[in-house]
Amino acid sequence: MELGQMQKSLQDYTKSLFVEGILDSQFLQLPQLQDESNSDFVSQVVSLFFQDSDRILNDLSLSLDQKVVDFEKVDPYVHQLKGSSSSIGAQRVKNACVVFRSFCEQKNVEACHRCLQQVKQEYYLVKNRLETLFKLEQQIVASGGMISAMDLGF
Amino acid sequence: MDKGFSPVGLRVLVVDDDPTWLKILEKMLKKCSYEVTTCGLAREALRLLRERKDGYDIVISDVNMPDMDGFKLLEHVGLELDLPVIMMSVDGETKRVMKGVQHGACDYLLKPIRMKELKIIWQHVLRKKLQEVRDIEGCCYEGGADWFTRNDETHYLGGGEDVSFGKKRKEFDFEKKLLQDESDPSSSSSKKARVVWSFELHQKFVNAVNQIGCDHKAGPKKILDLMNVPWLTRENVASHLQKYRLYLSRLEKGKELKCYSGGVKNIDSPPKDSEFSSGHQSPGKNSYGFSGGSSLIHKAETDPKQLASSSVSDPSDVHMPPKAKKSRIEFDPPISSSCAFESLLPWSDVPDPLESKPTILYESSFLQQQPLLPSQSPYVANSAPTLMQDEMKPSYETCVNADAFLMPQDKNSTVMILQDLALPTPYAMKLQEASSNVTNDTESILRSLNWELPESHHSGFIDTDLDFSWIQNEHFLANTSGNFQNFQFQDYSCSPSLLSELPPHLWFGNDPDECTLMVDHGLFIS
Question: Where in the cell is it found (chain B) (predicted)?
Fold first, then answer.
């Protein structure tokens, strides 16, 4: 695939993430923070997000799997995940967390389990999409092209 | 007004347990040309802050952190260091934001945070500095100017570079003039000039007192004449004299009793009505200017003899040093509070004032002080007076160092030390007062004060806010002054004045006839 096409693909792909609400405008802030001093700032941040979220989801699952669910523990995890997802603009994850928290407040174990599934689903979705996005970018760079914030299509 | 002001190089400490946010914020802040330090744990942040007390200009912290509640961190920082703190959260619930404000946050940002929000955080730093500077102004600035500017430089920029944040001398003089202009005695609001007892001024005072030689002959008029400071009034001197005597008498009780100044001061300003201390009130002499009659703010005792007798005769003041009753607020309260605060910190036990107490450590102990107990309502009532009282403290300390003039000791002072609580002075004092002197009037006044705080972060909840607001100010002093010994009176000037916006007439106890303290002028303005 030639460079121009790749870049177009990248643009379309990126756009779709926003259209589908998987990402919000916060994600657009990240490339603006990238410069020569840290040329892979965005991917670093996203990686951090993945690492942290994996950890939180793990803890969250564990705490919900307890015989007696301690919502005092569960809620903070959800809050953390909410905060974390807001950092890169993972909108659907964040929204799922909001719903999750409301069920935590109600101490509805059943609903919380469902929420956890929902959150995980959204998380894996955004993770997957972003990984694909980065791959596309890498291909472009490898082919001699350049990626800029404008390439995100906005 | 600050010609040299520039947000560049603002030293920001960011605290967030979310590594993603921490990284993003770091980058964003760097883009704002700030000097950024990041921290993933609240305790770590506190450690950093305490290690380099002058090392940061502002703290930005997330509300939810695993090792410590962000609000707690906020309290610590406010109390110990008096730095502006901005809270952040992904949660924007009103009650959370309210909590932030109550705990003293100067701002509350919602995540995701935008660059534009971070670009203007320097205003909080500047605002705080300006407030402090306003307190410093006053005639006695000459000596203080350089000091302040010097400290400003280092404080703001962390190094001896050009002053970006600091004020220049001209500006101080300007403010001073403004203040003096305000002090037209004929004005209907009867505003009075705020006397800032700079080191130089105090030196003059002490020299004059020494010249006169004997306590009982050293009346304010004589001292005033000897001092030859045209703008100073007899009342100014009188109230200062009271404090000085108080200080000296405390000294007599032992070095470690200095710690008490807070407690003593507390005693000084028991929320009593005039009726209370019949002994030490004579018409027109001690007006406790608080609406409602609580004597949160004492008027300067103009007659030294009266002082002595009054203190003795007042049973409720049993734990007060003799002259402590008339603490004066002419001195910028926050400053003295800070000083007092510091010296009062290492309290170990309350009951016997004459026991050997830990030495007063000006800074380190003070700054390591644990967080104040947030909600102690009885304290609240005392915070105002305490505040006033505290100012005296540092100056006296100074006096001790600078001048060996000794006043007759008043053996009656049974200073009650609240050290056992290891609370910062104000709290200790409050505790002290709580048990004996809190009156409903006082509380309501304090409440009103609390609510009146225009800018104070602490508005709303007396328990916590009141305490914090002025503690914060006190801390500021500690924060800025590398070495207390040097500052002494100047200390008043540098700390943000809680009472800075209190109309001068409110707390200038110089006018014996002035009985009302209009509390609702935002006593505690951070």
Answer: Nucleus
Apex CA B395: angle with CA B391 and CA B398, to 5°?
Answer: 150
Average pLDDT of span A2-18? 91
Query: Does B62 contact chain A (CB < 8 Å)?
Result: yes
Judged by CB atoms closer than 8 Å, whether chains meet at B21 and A84 is answered as: yes
Would you state the pLDDT for residue B242? Answer: 78
- The C-alpha angle with vertex A41 and arms to A37 and A45, in degrees rounded to 5, equals 150
B32 vs A contacts (CB less than 8 Å)? none
Check if the beta carbon of residue B192 is closer than 8 Å to that of residue B183. Answer: yes
Predicted pLDDT of residue A152? 54
Mind telling me how many Å the CA of B17 is from chain A's nearest CA? 9
Query: How far is residue B213 from each of residues A84, B7, B203, measured CA to CA in Å?
Result: 69, 51, 15
- Given a cut of 80, whether residue B361 has pLDDT beyond it is no
**Strand order across the B58-62 sheet:** B35-39, B11-15, B58-62, B85-89, B107-110
Query: Residue holding tokens 């510091």?
Result: B342
Tokens of A137: 């970018």
The answer to whether the Cβ–Cβ distance between B89 and A30 falls below 8 Å is no
Q: Which residues contact A47 (CB under 8 A, 6 or more apart)?
A: none
Q: What is the pLDDT of residues B48-98, one digit of tens each?
A: 999 988 899 999 999 999 889 899 899 888 888 888 999 999 988 899 999
Classify the C-alpha dihedral B195-B200-B201-B205 as positive or negative. Answer: positive
Contact B475, B496 (CB under 8 A): no
Burial B240-269 (b: 16+ CB within 10 A, else e): bbbbbbbbbbbbbbbebbbbbbbbbbbbbb
pTM to 2 decimal places: 0.48
